[in-house]
Amino acid sequence: MMxxxxxxxDALIAAGALLILAVLPLVFPxxxxxxxxxxxxxxxxxxxxxxxxxxxxxxxxxxxxxxYGLGAYSFALLMQKAGTSIPMAFLLTVLISAGVxxxxxxICIRLKEIYFSFLTLAFQMLLYSLIIAWTPVTxxxxxxxxxxxxxxxxxxxxxxxxxxxxxxxxxxxxxxxIMYHFVQSPFGYTLRMIRDNPRRAGFLGIQVWxxxxxxxxxxxxxxxxxxxxxxxxxxxxxxxxxYWTISGEGVFMILMGGIGVFLGPLAGAVVLLLLxxxxxxxxxxxxxxxxxxxxxxxxxxxxxxxxxxxxxWKNRRAPAGNAVPGKH
Amino acid sequence: MDFDALxxxxxxxxxxxxxxxxxxxxxxxxxxxxxxxxxIFGTLKVTNFMHxxxxxxxxxxxxxxxxxxxxxxxxxxxxxxxxGAFALVFERVFMSRVYGSDVLLQxxxxxxFILILDDVVKIVWGAExxxxxxxxxxxxxxxxxxxxxxxxxxxxxxxxxxxxxxALGFLITKTRIGKIVRAAAVNPTMxxxxxxxxxxxxxxxxxxxxxxxxxxxxxxxxxxxxxxxxGFSILIESFIVTVIGGMGSVAGALVGALLIGLVRSFxxxxxxxxxxxxxFLFMTIVLIVRPSGLFGKDR
Lengths: 328, 299
Hints:
The complex is a heterodimer of chains A (328) and B (299).
Chain A: H1 2-27, H2 31-56, H3 65-82, H4 86-108, H5 113-133, H6 135-138, H7 161-184, H8 186-196, H9 198-203, H10 208-234, H11 244-257, H12 264-282, H13 286-299, H14 304-317
Helix pairs in contact in A: 1-7, 2-7, 2-10, 2-11, 2-12, 3-4, 3-5, 3-10, 4-10, 7-8, 7-10, 8-10, 11-12, 11-14
Chain B: H1 3-11, H2 13-44, H3 51-69, H4 72-93, H5 103-125, E1 143-145, E2 148-150, H6 152-174, H7 176-186, H8 188-193, H9 198-220, H10 231-245, H11 250-270, H12 275-289
Antiparallel strand pairs in B: 1-2
């Protein structure tokens, strides 16, 4: 009973958020704004999916960009070479990513901490080197040329910027909604228990590896949806989408936004993209600036922006001590 | 897949020798980087995710020192010491602050430094590829073995790496310093209770690991081109090496590095598209059969 009402409430919130996003272009009519939101949606879905592993599962993947690149290339290639419809390509991309995630996950989740991080990273670099080397299919380091066709489906024309904007917002909200309910489900709590005490979870009869693998697959699916949105937006796919820096940025978005807050990665995505847009306008040495910002957050502000603000808000409302919505 | 090319290479002695020596020197460079990574991990239990950047710094330091002094020996020693000093400062000022916290923060601090160093290199040395060329000392006609080419510098590189490997093995297993390092790795609290300055040990090990990476970078300059970001692929490879060889084992790093060097070198002929894949396949098999690596003790 509690669950159905909370789903209904969250669905209402999601619908409201979508409505606000749909109306926003009327307030900010420029192309710059809608482009920003589209890019943000791709990164926010990606970073939130990574947080399923890092924040909720305690599995610090440093190769999540594997799925970002995989999603972008699978989708773009399906559209370009196989000429499938968009919903079909979407579905197939999800299936492909789930399959790859199952295989990579089965190998990686056996390992602890830093081994896990490095092994996921190594698998990502394997995809990257495949993309670079397999020029006839992937276009090598030039990326896919010739554009991604975006045929109409169900009256949605994704080559129309406004339709694309709404589509990306809808995918963003739907993905966040599903992932939120994933982490609030009993399964999500099992995942957190494993993060905090895997041995105890094992004693309670939980198959730890199965829970971790399923989380890895779900995160992989949504990671690839992030890449898919980006390939829709740029109408291509580039090797950079599979490069390790994407994973690094994802991890940093999580840390910057707040690892313990469900919407933290979203906030991190917004801030990092804003930062990127501002800094790249001023200097070509974005890495230098980003590196310094990262050090500031990693050594100074470890709870992230949203975590910091939530703490402020909680302290003000203390000593009521009510759990903050969205907090673990 | 091009099995014909691979078979015909194995059919001719000159091709085998050329590929084998090429693989051997890649393996040697890889060993130096991986040994440092493995040493740091084995002692400090942190992974120096920016180890590849130290290799890059070593290469650029050597490039500049060689252009200034014209002496390759000065360039190599100077680069190794310079990178060692840099690694020590990095460990004391930044890395030591995140030892107790989770892997995420350690990765991020290193990630930040990779980005910073890549851009610093671009600012100081430019974004273009640089090549130093072979130092004059080594400009001799190559040694020919069964029709295969073996440049003199390769012999030097292989020799110096083997000396370093032996010295490192001796230092860790036979000397008092090695005993202290191993003790600090097993139980840092107990070690410091016995009156040993573990902060000094950790800093020293980190600096030693950095020196090895810097040495590898300096030795790579005559045979590799220099570019910002060059350290990343060697980081991934040396991680694979340590997984195959076993974290914390010098002998394992040597065997793993040689295996990877040779697999890559012959792989480019037989499986040009799947050279990296071959390496991963190899690593995956090792992980499944012997999760602690060929020479590793159980984790």
